[in-house]
């Protein structure tokens, strides 16, 4: 379900959820999405393997746009555009 990005979008806000196990990164994303304006991008950093599957499901469910993820050194960078 998650899409590996070749080009990294500019993020308005980044949340560092590395070291947090599921559902921690998802909860951090839910809290942080309110800090970005509609149309802006939230970046979530996570080393929990389930996050790159959980975030797209959550984004679709609540009406945001999942943009994809990028692999970093030992963690994932996950991007969501706020839609409402």
UniProtKB/TrEMBL annotation:
CDD domains: SirA_YedF_YeeD. Coiled coil: none annotated. Residues 15-39 form the UPF0033 domain. It comes from the Bacteria. Signal peptide: none annotated. Gene3D superfamilies: TusA-like domain. Belongs to the sulfur carrier protein TusA family. This is Preprotein translocase subunit TatB. It comes from Desulfoferula mesophila.
């Amino acid at each position: 379900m998650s899409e590996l990005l070749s080009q990294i979008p500019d993020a308005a806000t980044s949340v560092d959820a590395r070291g947090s196990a599921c559902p921690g990164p998802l909860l951090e994303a839910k809290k942080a999405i309110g800090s970005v304006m509609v149309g802006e991008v939230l970046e979530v950093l996570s080393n929990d393997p389930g996050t790159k599957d959980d975030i797209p499901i959550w984004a679709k469910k609540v009406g945001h746009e999942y943009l994809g993820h990028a692999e970093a050194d030992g963690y994932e960078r996950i991007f969501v555009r706020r839609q409402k």
